[in-house]
Each structure stands twice: as structure tokens, then as C-alpha cells.
């Protein structure tokens, strides 16, 4: 009888300890892609599965009405909304991890670099992100309109979110002058760099960059690793380590990489086509304390 009581007591202590460990696990925020919402099946799948596998609390952070605003709201505005939401979440005050899906990575990186007074981001897992930009206009009717007034016009930049990370290799001057979001995020605007952006980005514990081998959405797909076309051409794609962003270390990519904190992961399959086994192997380790 004494043995049973002792065994019961030990199990009780273990259960208490386990619940304490779970309550102090680092939560994560997930940011979905363009044309999606937190209620979409794909977004729900990622949020619920990663939370289940990591045993940590996961939250999909919605901006505006989701699908429409993810397309039409300028990214700097999306980041401002996300920033205020993150600062208002008590669950995140001791720090959190970030998971970005496709365009959501643009907002996620903005949270890291631009959000003043926010809780610290520990690990940033980028899944199929257009991190170095996209080299062609995507969006059907919007691209036709941009063809008339220019992707870097004030009107398009104010009404079409992907224009904020469209980087035309044959118009780098126009990109640096007219693109409102990515040049600032990359800290590459001449005479307008901000060392705080680099300081915040290099404070990450890990930067996980996941590229899909058959990705036909991100052009070039190497942008998910911060690789991109060489300026002036659509024929040569530079690996991340040979780009100006890396060589000049404008926002800290080289610093993180040389510290062994950048994980370059290539997966077979299409855009965002991860299965549960791949999530377990490549994402979950960075969501667990």
C-alpha cells in the first residue's frame, strides 16, 4: 500500500512538472500567404499540426479581413497592424517564434526589423517565402494595370501588396527609387540605412529557410534562400552568398550565416507542399525549447 501511494505521488509530481514545462514553452505566430486567411484549410493545417507536433501554443495572426487585405493592403501597413497585435498579446511577452508562409514571410520579417517595443523573436522559420523578392509581376489584372502605369508607381505600390517586393532585375534603379517595402527591409536604400534593422535581425537564434524544388509561384524559387537574378539579367541566378545583400551584409544575413544560424533546406514538391513528416523534421525542432 505504501508503495502504491509512493508511486502515485511520483506520477502526480511528474504530471505537475510536465504541465509547468508546457506552460512555459515558447508560443509561435504564423502568418499566412496572399489571398488566404487564418480560416483557410491550408493555413489551419499548418497552425494546428505545428502546434500539435511541437506541443506549443500556435496562433495564426490575421491582418484585416485576411484574403482581400493580404492582396490590396501595402505591406508596411500590414506590418503596423501585426506589430500592434503582437505587442498586445500577453502570451508572447517572454518571446516567441515566427513561421511565415509565402508572402507572410514579408510581414514576418517586417515584424522582426520594424516593430518597436515588441517581444523578441527567437526563431524565424520561412516556408516558401519570396525573401529576396519576385522578378515578375504576379496577379493577373493588377499586372496588366501595372504594365500601363508601372509596378513602381505610387498608385500600384499603394494598392497591390506584392508590388512591395517585386524586384525587376532590369530596373534596379526604379526598384530602389519606387519600391516602398523591400528596399527598406533589405536596408539597401542609399543614404537611408538603419543599423537597428540589422541589429534586430541578427538577434535571431535561428533562421530557417525552406525552398521547394518545384516551386512555380516564387520566381525565382531561389528567392526563398535569398538567392536572386544577377542585376540586369533573367538568365543567371546567384546563390545567396554571391548577392549584394549577402556580400554587403546590409541586414545581417551574412552575420547570421557565419554564426551557423542559417539553415538552408530544400524540399521536393510544389509551393508550400510540406507533409507532416517534413514538418516534424525541419520545422518542429525550432519550435521546441
UniProtKB/TrEMBL annotation:
Keywords: Hydrolase, Membrane, Transmembrane, Transmembrane helix
Gene3D superfamilies on file: alpha/beta hydrolase
UniProt-recorded Gene Ontology molecular function terms: thiolester hydrolase activity
UniProt keyword Hydrolase, yes or no: yes
Pfam families, per the entry: Palm_thioest
InterPro entries assigned: AB_hydrolase_fold
Transmembrane segments: 9-30
Keyword Nucleus tagged: no
Name listed for the protein in its UniProt record: Palmitoyl-protein thioesterase 1
Amino acid at each position: 500500500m505504501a508503495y502504491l501511494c509512493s508511486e502515485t505521488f511520483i506520477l502526480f509530481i511528474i504530471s505537475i512538472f510536465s504541465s509547468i514545462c508546457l506552460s512555459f514553452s515558447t508560443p509561435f505566430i504564423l502568418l499566412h500567404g496572399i489571398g488566404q486567411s487564418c480560416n483557410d484549410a491550408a493555413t489551419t493545417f499548418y497552425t494546428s499540426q505545428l502546434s500539435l507536433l511541437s506541443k506549443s501554443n500556435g496562433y495564426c495572426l490575421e491582418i484585416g479581413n485576411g484574403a482581400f487585405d493580404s492582396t490590396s493592403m501595402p505591406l508596411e501597413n500590414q506590418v503596423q497592424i501585426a506589430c500592434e497585435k503582437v505587442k498586445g498579446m500577453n502570451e508572447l511577452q517572454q518571446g516567441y517564434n515566427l513561421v511565415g508562409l509565402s508572402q507572410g514571410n514579408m510581414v514576418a520579417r517586417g515584424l522582426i526589423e520594424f516593430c518597436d517595443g515588441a517581444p523578441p523573436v527567437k526563431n524565424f522559420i520561412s516556408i516558401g517565402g519570396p525573401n529576396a523578392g519576385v522578378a515578375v509581376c504576379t496577379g493577373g489584372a493588377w499586372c496588366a494595370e501595372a504594365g500601363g502605369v508601372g509596378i513602381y508607381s505610387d498608385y500600384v505600390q499603394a494598392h497591390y501588396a506584392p508590388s512591395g517586393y517585386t524586384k525587376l532585375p532590369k530596373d534596379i534603379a526604379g526598384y530602389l527609387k519606387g519600391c516602398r517595402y523591400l528596399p527598406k527591409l533589405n536596408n539597401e536604400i542609399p543614404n537611408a540605412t538603419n543599423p537597428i534593422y540589422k541589429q534586430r535581425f541578427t538577434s535571431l537564434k535561428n533562421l530557417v529557410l525552406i525552398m521547394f524544388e518545384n516551386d512555380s509561384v516564387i520566381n525565382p524559387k531561389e528567392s526563398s534562400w535569398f538567392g536572386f537574378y544577377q542585376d540586369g539579367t533573367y538568365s543567371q541566378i546567384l546563390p545567396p552568398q554571391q548577392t549584394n545583400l549577402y556580400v554587403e551584409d546590409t541586414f545581417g544575413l551574412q552575420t547570421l550565416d557565419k554564426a551557423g544560424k542559417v539553415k538552408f533546406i530544400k524540399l521536393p514538391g510544389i509551393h508550400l507542399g510540406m507533409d507532416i513528416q517534413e514538418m516534424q523534421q525541419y520545422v518542429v525542432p525550432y519550435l521546441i525549447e
